[in-house]
Design brief:
The complex is a heterodimer of chains A (about 260) and B (about 775).
Chain A lengths: L2 H6 L10 E12 L2 E12 L3 E5 L6 H8 L7 E6 L2 E2 L5 H11 E4 L11 H12 L4 H14 L15 H13 L5 E5 L7 H16 L3 E5 L3 H4 L4 E6 L2 E7 L8 H14 L3
Helix pairs in contact in A: 4-5, 4-6
Chain B lengths: L1 H11 L1 H39 L4 E6 L4 H9 L4 E11 L5 E3 L2 E2 L6 E5 L8 E2 L12 E5 H5 L8 E5 L4 E12 L9 E6 L1 H10 L3 E9 L5 H10 L8 E3 H44 L1 H9 L4 H34 L1 H7 L6 H26 L7 H7 L21 H10 L5 H24 L15 E6 L5 H14 L3 E15 L5 E9 L10 E2 L7 E5 H7 L6 E6 L2 E11 L8 E4 L7 E10 L5 H11 L4 E4 H8 L1 H36 L1 H9 L4 H40 L12 H23 L2 H4 L7
Parallel strand pairs in B: 5-10, 7-9, 15-20, 17-19
Antiparallel strand pairs in B: 1-11, 1-12, 2-5, 2-11, 3-4, 3-8, 6-9, 7-10, 8-9, 13-21, 13-22, 14-15, 14-21, 16-19, 17-20, 18-19
Helix pairs in contact in B: 1-9, 2-7, 2-9, 2-11, 2-19, 7-11, 7-19, 8-12, 9-11, 13-21, 14-19, 14-21, 14-22, 18-19, 19-22, 21-22
The chains are: A alpha/beta (about 260), B alpha+beta (about 775).
Organism (chain A): Propionibacterium ruminifibrarum
Keywords (chain A): ATP-binding, Hydrolase, Nucleotide-binding, Transport
GO molecular function, one term (chain A): ATP hydrolysis activity
Chain lengths: ~260, ~775
């Protein structure tokens, strides 16, 4: 199958595929401006999906609709059998807390809490596990991200890269089924960005589904699947398979070609 | 351009702008009303004193007197410009009926007089001295003020064997006995009716009045007068004391209004500072951009200053306009008792000038705060973004919290931040402002107030004063009746006599000494004990202060019979008779001013029945329940304090509401990003509201607790300092526990909850758009 053929194929896997997230006829508009326009998409369990597209293509809006942060204007979003659009605010908040992890481009942290407390916050909020256990997991995650020595640091005392790693720890504290990341390396230098991407790779290997918005082809090539959004619709859907470092160049060519086709 | 920016800014923070404007308006209204009341009262008193020609010195004398003697003595002195002797006929309360109501239970003591001709004038309508015709009577405005009588009503005196009825033709202002808290009232009748009454109402009292060349020399004159052996069985009063007592009630309200206004201005300045700092913090990126493109800090500052100037001016003008009707309402009793104050340019301009000054001070503080704009580091702000400026606190770790739910933990920790000082301070002040006057009002209504009246606690007091009646016969009759009454468990008789005692500067002044058995109804002493031998004396606090003596010292008491040295055994509190009293056991032949018999009744439920029986069987003496005595003595003051307490509560609750509103709106604006993060992480608005409820609840509870504590400690001390000048320095407030510990805290907490409930609606409109 050529890249072009792949791009034009429907974005729905076969009926038997274990889709964890499904969008059906998803649309979102702000006044007269249609940001998402009748979008259909299935994301399989354990898949690492990169969402690309030019500015204003609806990448972030798409991510917000999938993660329940924004209510779509039409259509539905299903987490397994649960329709997010039918949930009230309380249920939606509970869903974000228990099943989703969010990593933002800007490190949005509670400035009054130290780094460890920020990481533990969703764990304590969910009350699913004893606090001792949550704390131990938080310390373990910080350790794994290489920032254990910064646990008691103020959020103003650490670098952007360290904050982003802490943000990933926070997203993982409740063992999220799906990790959403909006330009997680956008504000970082290339060396730090590479470390963050390694972390995403590790998380993906452990079986977590990841949906990541990025404008950088070098970041997107780490994903199993790359979607290119243009004017609120999926114009390219590349299935790259599991990432291997020795295939980086070839994957970069494919992603770049898809972007070129869409004049991105 | 400026107007557009201003409009946009005002619209954005409408609730805060409105609250600040109302706060300034409230302060301005109180400044205007308070100033207007004070200038009005001062000019009214001045005007009334001038028109009525208030004497500089008045010596009271009960019993018979020879005015000729006084005329001769006065004529021989250069320091006396004018004098007159006014004869009054005291009428016992049981025999007097006004507009169908018998005055037996009244606090006021009425006496008939004819209208004075030269000075101490009793002024009716149009400031003309009243001059009733035969069959008519003119009453003091007090009776009109408390709604006892109207023109056309009848005043009847019925002694049993003689009666007369007089028609009320008008009311007058009595510059000397005007004040509500003075029990003596003069009723003016024609010379003809007075002559008839003299034959039937034998209880006479003389007012010996002087106008002096030098009003400040009244002490010398009165001492010489007494030394000359002229009629002087009663107390002496000076013009200054008359002015003081006249102004006291109105001034009390005016002073509280001004004090509350100062408090409001302070709170307004704090609230504005908080608002300005919060706005600056929120607008920091814009300010940085403006600075980056080269706008001078001064111009940016003026932009903000303009907004607060508009708010302060709007509030100031609205408050000033509202202040005049407020002062008119609060000053209604003043106008009635003292007459309408003449409109002078001071009375109109002073409130406006002071209100303008208040607005100026407020804006000045804003200008000072705005100088911080110059200190904003452009690069720093543009590099890191505005942030919320809050740092974490090292000692508070969520990871160490084991039980408290997260939102409550966050709320608790936020409540302990210094930025909450504004709300905590305001709630503390407001609770204090409510609790203290309420405590004073309930104290004045409490029976144990007798502690401060220089007497022991008894159920009944029976007063028999000198006059035409035979005092000892009257007292014997009372004692016989009490001994025979099985309901009376014990009683004792105390004689009150006037002596001289040296002050610390060596001059001699009057002291009223109670002579009798002081152990029968023991009273509480600040220090020491009561006298137990003939050579001992206990002094009231003010008397001890004036003489500069303490327990263990020796004082000299002078009577016509000679000097007597007595050892001071104790100091007690007494606010009656200017606080200048003493208690001793010695007995001499000095004239007795009046005698008081104290009695205890076996069953407290029958006190009023026993009092009624005694009144019926003992005409000519006054029988009063001690509770009733205290409440009547303080009745007028207590009413004033109740008004003040109600005013303070209203203002305090309004202030609590306004500041809570401003605080919550600003806190939510400041913490919008934190709310956004919590929501993105999976907290509902309801959960987050719980955090703010915890925070505000803790602040409100702490504020209420601190306010009550302050009221019970510092408030009581302040009242002690104030009453110390009146003779009761160790006053203990007796607050009504329900009112102080339940109703006031509940009202404050409900007000905070109401304001928070209204403003926290804003949480609903907050979207997650901040997390992009």
């Amino acid at each position: 199958m050529t890249d072009a053929a792949t791009a034009r194929s429907p974005h729905l896997p076969a009926q038997s595929s274990p889709a964890v997230l499904r969008a059906r006829n998803l649309s979102k508009h702000y006044g007269d401006a249609r940001v998402l326009d009748g979008l259909d998409l299935d994301i399989d369990r354990g898949q690492f999906v990169a969402v690309m597209g030019p500015s204003g293509s609806g990448k972030s809006t798409f991510l917000h609709c999938l993660s329940g942060m924004t209510r779509p204007s039409g259509g539905s979003v299903l987490l397994r059998d649960t329709d997010l659009t039918a949930l009230d605010e309380r249920a939606l908040a509970a869903l974000r807390l228990e099943h989703f992890g969010l990593v933002f481009q800007q490190p949005h942290f509670m400035s009054t809490l130290c780094l460890l407390d920020n990481v533990l916050l969703p764990g304590f909020l969910s009350r699913r596990r004893p606090r001792e256990e949550v704390t131990a997991r938080g310390r373990m995650l910080l350790e794994r991200m290489g920032i254990a020595d910064l646990a008691d640091a103020d959020v103003t005392e650490v670098s952007g890269g360290q904050l982003q790693r802490a943000g990933i720890c926070r997203a993982l504290i409740n063992e999220a089924a799906v990790l959403f990341a909006d330009e997680p390396t956008g504000a970082l230098n290339s060396a730090t960005a590479a470390r963050i991407l390694d972390v995403f790779g590790e998380i993906h290997v452990r079986g977590t589904t990841i949906v990541m918005v990025t404008h950088d082809a070098k970041v997107a090539l780490r994903a199993d699947r790359v979607l290119v959004l243009v004017d609120g619709g999926v114009e390219e859907d590349l299935l790259l398979g599991h990432y291997r470092e020795d295939q980086s160049a070839e994957r970069l060519v494919r992603v770049s070609a898809a972007l070129n086709r869409q004049s991105v | 351009m400026l107007t557009r920016l201003l409009k946009a800014d005002l619209a954005r923070g409408f609730a805060v702008s409105l609250s600040l404007t109302v706060l300034i308006a409230l302060a301005a209204a109180l400044v205007t009303a308070g100033t207007s009341l004070i200038t009005g009262t001062v000019t009214s008193i001045g005007r009334l004193s001038a028109h009525a020609r208030v004497p500089d010195l008045i010596q009271m004398h009960a019993g018979q007197a020879d005015p000729g003697e006084i005329d001769t003595w006065a004529a021989s002195r250069d320091d006396i410009v004018e004098h007159q002797v006014i004869k009054t006929l005291r009428v016992s309360k049981q025999t007097l009926t006004i507009a169908g109501t018998n005055q037996a239970d009244s606090y006021t003591e009425a006496a008939f007089v004819t209208s004075p001709e030269h000075f101490d004038l009793l002024l009716g309508d149009g400031d003309a001295p009243v001059d009733p015709a035969p069959g008519e009577v003119a009453l003091p405005v007090h009776y009109q003020a408390i709604g006892i009588a109207e023109v056309g009503d009848m005043v009847t005196v019925d002694t049993g064997d003689w009666s007369t009825s007089l028609r009320v033709v008008g009311f007058f202002r009595d510059a000397q006995m005007n004040a509500q808290m003075i029990p003596s009232k003069r009723l003016v009748v024609s010379t003809e009716d007075f002559a008839v009454m003299e034959d039937h109402l034998g209880d006479t009292e003389y007012l010996v009045e002087f106008i002096l060349a030098d009003a400040s020399a009244s002490d010398t004159v009165i001492n010489d007068y007494r030394a000359a052996g002229l009629p002087s069985t009663g107390i002496a009063v000076t013009a200054l004391q008359i002015r003081l007592i006249n102004s006291l009630s109105t001034m009390l309200i005016a002073a509280v209004a001004v004090l509350v206004a100062i408090l409001l201005v302070a709170v307004a300045v704090l609230a504005l500072r908080y608002t300005v700092l919060a706005s600056l913090e929120i607008d920091l990126p814009q300010i940085a951009v403006l600075r980056a493109i080269g706008a001078p800090p001064g111009r940016i500052g003026r932009l903000y200053l303009l907004k607060y100037l508009v708010l302060a001016l709007a509030g100031g003008i609205a408050g000033c306009l509202a202040g005049y009707p407020l002062s008119s309402a609060l000053g209604a009793p003043t106008r009635l008792y003292l007459g309408a104050p003449p409109a002078t340019w001071e009375s109109i301009a002073m409130p406006v000038v002071l209100t303008a000054g208040m607005v100026g001070v407020t804006v000045g503080f804003v200008a000072l705060t705005l100088r911080r704009i110059g200190a904003v580091s452009v690069v720093e702000v543009l590099r890191r973004g505005a942030g919320d400026g809050m740092q974490s606190r090292r000692h508070w770790r969520l990871s160490r919290s084991r039980l408290l739910p997260v939102q409550q933990w966050l709320g608790l920790r936020a409540a302990l931040r210094p930025t909450n000082a504004l709300l905590l301070g305001v709630i503390t002040l407001c609770t204090f402002t409510m609790a203290l006057p309420t405590g004073v009002a309930t104290t004045l209504d409490d029976p144990s107030l007798a502690t401060y009246l220089g007497t022991g606690q008894a159920d009944l007091r029976i007063d028999a004063s000198t006059g035409s009646q035979d005092l000892s016969a009257a007292v014997s009759a009372v004692e016989r009746t009490l001994t025979a009454d099985s309901r009376v468990t014990k009683h004792t008789t105390i004689a009150r006599r006037d002596y001289q005692m040296p002050a610390s500067d060596g001059s001699w002044s009057s002291v009223l000494i109670d002579i009798g058995d002081h152990d029968a109804f023991p009273m509480s002493y600040i220090s020491g004990r009561g006298p137990s031998t003939l050579e001992e004396i206990s002094l009231s606090y003010s008397r001890a202060e004036e003489s500069g003596v303490g327990v263990g010292d020796t004082v000299t008491v002078r009577s016509p019979a000679g000097d007597r040295s007595l050892k001071v055994t104790g100091i007690y509190q007494d606010i009656t008779n200017n606080g200048l009293t003493a208690k001793a056991l010695f007995d001499d032949d000095a004239p007795t001013l009046w005698m008081t018999i104290y009695a205890d009744i076996d069953d407290s439920y029958v006190i009023s029945a026993v009092a009624a029986d005694l009144r019926a069987s003992l005409p000519g003496v006054q029988v009063t329940g001690m509770n009733e005595y205290a409440s009547q003595l303080f009745g007028a003051t207590a009413a004033q304090v109740r008004t003040v307490a109600a005013m303070a509560c209203t203002v305090a609750l309004a202030l609590t509401f306004l500041i809570t509103t401003v605080f919550v709106v600003l806190v939510l604006a400041r913490e919008e990003s934190q709310v956004g993060i919590l929501r993105a992480l999976g907290s509902t608005r309801h959960d987050i509201a719980g955090q703010y409820v915890t925070r505000l609840g803790l602040l409100a509870a702490a504020g209420v607790g601190l306010g009550l504590l302050l009221s019970a400690t510092m408030g009581e001390r302040a009242i002690g300092l104030l009453l110390g000048t009146r003779g009761a320095p160790a006053v203990q407030l007796l607050p009504d526990p329900w009112l102080t510990w339940l109703i006031i805290p509940t009202m404050v907490l409900l007000t905070v909850a109401g304001a928070a409930g209204l403003t926290m609606h804003r949480l609903k409109t907050m979207t997650l758009a901040i997390i992009d």
